[in-house]
Amino acid sequence: MKRKLLSFQMIFALLSVNLIPVASYADELNQSESSAVEDSSTTETTDSSSTEDSSTTTTDSSTSGTETSTTESSDTTTTPSSEAPQPPVENQAPQPVQPEVPAEPQEEAVVEDVPVVTDNGLTVQPDQEISVVKNEPTETFIRRIGEKARAVGQKNDLYASVMIAQAILETGAGGSQLSQQPYYNLFGIKGEYKGEQVVFSTQEDDGSGNMYTIDAAFKKYPSYKESFEDYAKLMKEGIDSNSEIYSGTWKTNAVSYQEATKSLTGVYATDTSYDKKLNAFIEEYNLTEYDKAQPSKTAAGIIVADTHADSDFKDYSGETFSGAEAYAEGNCTQYVYNRIVQLGGYVETTMGNGMDWGATGKANGYEVSNKPKAGTAVSFQPTVAGADGTYGHVAFVEHVYEDGSILISEMNVAGLGMVSFRVIDQNTANTLAYVTPK
User: Fold this and answer.
1) Is the CB of residue 318 less than 8 Å from the CB of residue 144?
2) Whole-angstrom Cα distance, residue 183 to residue 165?
3) Three-class SS string for the chain?
4) Comparing C-alpha atoms, which of 190, 185, 192, 187 is closest to residue 162?
5) Contact 434, 397 (CB under 8 A)
6) CA 164 to CA 170: how far, in whole Å?
7) Could you tell me which residues belong to the region Disordered (predicted)?
8) Quick one: average pLDDT of 406-425?
9) CA 47 to chain CA centroid, nearest Å
């Protein structure tokens, strides 16, 4: 019995010895895990502080008008390390704490108001001051339409200067597709003309300065002449609901072009500065010259225009026809070739220089004489009536007056590519060669 009891005591003692380290190791595990949690919490707190700094940066960025980046904040939040803290290294020198350097404040982007400059030379300043700078494309456009506007203005009691200014503004000095061949719509008038129309996308103003785009049908004209005439009809007859809506543009009601342009503002156009823009063009280009009854002439009697009231034929279209490439661009020979073909005639592409057309015409079976005749090509020998001293000159006869003088249209007398008119006296006219087209 004693021997058994002693055995049980020994067994118990042995078990007690083995259980002590097991319990101790479990406690160490618990203590280690608890320590790791505390360290992790400390790290997260530090990162939270970092996030606050990021928020401060974001606020500064927002103040500067820069778009806030949510990605940057997210990266900062997920940066903290999950590693357990390392035991300190003995005899390690303490690391100096780096002071935080505040981020430099970002300057707000300053957007300066800049003037709006259009292709036709019109400049609108931020304070709505309006000015115009002359340019060659606009001057060329004015020469093309000026005489047409004069003729229509004189006939319909309207200011040609206002019509020209409107055409410049509405078409970008003839640069819009609607104003060019084959549409010739100078004023953006909608509807149809003798059954002809064309559809374009256009921007409209809702009356509050807000623009929106629609597709609209615009009138299509045979030439600029019909465009001016139809515009004049609108000014004189008005619209169905108000026949005198544009009566303020009539010379009998407006003592100056300024009054006429004022009457168009808010009626013809919703632009509150419409009259100021028109006035700027009229003043810069001296368009009141076209309000006079008779065209202006140079000292040499040259009228720079592509139409004349005395012409027996429809206006020059400016179109370049097949075969014209045989002649020098912008010169007298190419112009006369295009003018004859435009009016349904035929002439060779090998007529030569201006002085050669008479001789070449005879050699090719054309009727050639020294008797003036409207609708013919007229050939000048060198130096005659200002013709080039080497190549001579050729022009187109638009009209023969009762006194035997002739009205001619020509190109490259007033400048390369420019059409002009002048009258040749009877004595000179009788010395020239006239070639009748086939």
Assistant:
1) yes
2) 19
3) CHHHHHHHHHHHHHHHHHHHHHHHHHHHHHHHHHHHHHHHHHHHHHHHHHHHHHHHHHHHHHHCCCCCCHHHHHHHHCCCCCCCCCCCCCCCCCCCCCCCCCCCCCCCCCCCCCCEECCCCEEECCCCCEEECCCHHHHHHHHHHHHHHHHHHHHHCECHHHHHHHHHHHHCCCCCHHHCCCCCCCCCCECCECCEEEEEEEEEECCCCCEEEEEEEEECCCCHHHHHHHHHHHHHHCECCECCCCHHHECCCCCCHHHHHHHHECCCECCCCHHHHHHHHHHHCCHHHHHCCCCCCCCCCCEECCCCCCCCCCCCCCCCCCCHHHCCCCCHHHHHHHHHHHCCCCCCCCCCCHHHHHHHHHHCCCEEECCCCCCCEEEECCCHHHCECCCEEEEEEEEECCCCCEEEEEECCCCCCCEEEEEECHHHHCCCEEEECC
4) 187
5) yes
6) 10
7) 29-109
8) 93
9) 55
Q: Which two tokens stand for residue 129?
A: 């001051």
Residue 231: strand pairing partners:
none
Tokens representing residue 421 in the block: 């008119």
pLDDT digits (tens, 9 = 90+) for 335-371: 999 999 999 999 999 999 999 999 999 999 999 999 9
This prediction has a pTM of: 0.60
Q: Indicate the pLDDT class of residue 61, thresholds 50, 70 and 90.
A: very low
Domain boundaries, the chain: 116-291, 303-436
Structure tokens that stand for 410 in this block: 């020509």
Look up tokens 């083995």; give the residue.
18
Angle formed by the axes of helices 160-171 and 274-284, nearest 10°: 110
Residues 99, 105, 106, 110: what is their CA dihedral angle, to the nearest 10 degrees?
-170
CA gap 336, 398 in Å, rounded = 11
CB atoms within 10 A of CB 344: 8
Q: How far apart are CA 120 and CA 284, in angstroms?
A: 12
Q: Which two tokens stand for residue 202?
A: 């256009």
Please state which CATH class domain 116-291 belongs to. Answer: mainly alpha
CB atoms within 10 A of CB 408: 26
As a whole number of angstroms, the distance between CA 365 and CA 90 comes to 120
Segment 424-436 shows an average pLDDT of 97
Structure tokens at 389: 């001293």
CATH class of 303-436: alpha beta
Gap between the Cα atoms of 219 and 257, Å rounded: 26
